[in-house]
Design a protein that fits this description.
By secondary structure, this protein is mainly alpha-helical. It has one domain. It is built from 4 helices and no strands. α1 packs antiparallel against α4 and α2 packs antiparallel against α3. It is elongated and about 45 Å long.
Length: 126
C-alpha cells in the first residue's frame, strides 16, 4: 500500500509537470498540441524513472531494470499518446481534460506492471 501511495504522489507531481510543460509549449512556443504533448511525455519519462527507481520502489539502478522500464514505458507512452490524439479528433473535448482522463486510466495499469514486472523484488535462494 505504501508503494501505491508513493506511486500516486509521484504521478501527481509528474502529471503537474506534464500539464504545465504542455501548456508552456503550446502557449509560449506556439507548438501544436500534439507535438507539445509528445515532448512533454518524453521529458517526464526521465523524471518518472528516477522517482520510481529511488523513491517509489527503492531499487538500485541496473541495466535490466532500465531496459524493462524503457520498453514498458514506451508501450504506455505510445498508448497514452495514441488515445489522446484519437479521442481528441473524435470527441472535441477540452484537451487538458482529455489528457487527465487518459493518464488516469493508464496510471493504475502502470502501477501493476511496474510493481510486478519492472521493479519487482528479486528473491535470492541459498
Amino acid at each position: 500500500m505504501i508503494k501505491f501511495v508513493k506511486f500516486f504522489f509521484s504521478w501527481v507531481a509528474t502529471y503537474g509537470i506534464n500539464m504545465g510543460l504542455t501548456y508552456i509549449l503550446i502557449s509560449f512556443f506556439l507548438l501544436s498540441k500534439d507535438i507539445s504533448y509528445f515532448i512533454s511525455i518524453l521529458i517526464i519519462t526521465i523524471i518518472n524513472f528516477i522517482i520510481s527507481l529511488k523513491f517509489t520502489f527503492k531499487k538500485w539502478y541496473s541495466h535490466t531494470v532500465f531496459v524493462k522500464y524503457v520498453v514498458i514505458l514506451l508501450l504506455f507512452s505510445a498508448l497514452n499518446y495514441i488515445l489522446v490524439v484519437m479521442i481528441k479528433n473524435y470527441l472535441r473535448t477540452n484537451f487538458y481534460l482529455l489528457i487527465f482522463i487518459v493518464t488516469t486510466m493508464i496510471f493504475f495499469l502502470k502501477f501493476i506492471v511496474y510493481d510486478r514486472y519492472v521493479f519487482k523484488k528479486t528473491v535470492i535462494n541459498y
